[in-house]
Amino acid sequence: SVAAQLAGMHPQTLRTYARLGLVTPGRAGRARRYSARDVAKLQEIARLSQQEGVGLAGIRRIMMLQQEIAALRSQVQSLTAQLESAAETAAANLAQALAAQAGAARRDLVPARSRPGQQVVVWQRRRS
User: Fold this and answer.
1) Which residue pairs from 37-44 have beta carbons closer than 8 angstroms and sit at least 24 positions apart in sequence?
2) What is the rounded CA–CA span in Å between residue 82 and residue 76?
3) Where are the alpha helices (DSSP H) in the chain?
4) pTM as predicted
5) What is the percent of the chain with per-residue pLDDT over 70, rounded to a whole number?
6) For residue range 40-88, what is the model confidence (pLDDT) as tens digits?
7) 78 neighbors 86 (Cβ within 8 angstroms)
């Protein structure tokens, strides 16, 4: 009855909404326990019903769509985090590959005489 008072509805209406599955209260023995989230949901149901004129089937559909939207938002956040992680890894791999290529290019530019054990021989064709 306290939850019904907080939601601004009759206790029987609250039980009907619970029976229809619009809210799912916790249980402590035979007593129903409504959370603050449940009370807010009941207030939204009352608003949709009384002010917007939405029927119970419409309210059920709205609540289902809201849950689906919340699940999809969570999935988008997870996928975004995975994508950002993959992009960071790819960027680090690319930077490492470029650094390795730059190092190889620098080694190729070092004159041969400065490398131990190697000599540069210039070959010229004799002119006859």
Assistant:
1) 38/3, 39/3, 39/6, 39/7, 42/3, 42/6, 42/7, 42/9, 42/14, 42/17, 43/7, 43/8
2) 10
3) 2-7, 11-20, 36-50, 56-109
4) 0.62
5) 83
6) 999 999 999 989 999 999 999 999 999 999 999 999 999 999 999 999 9
7) no
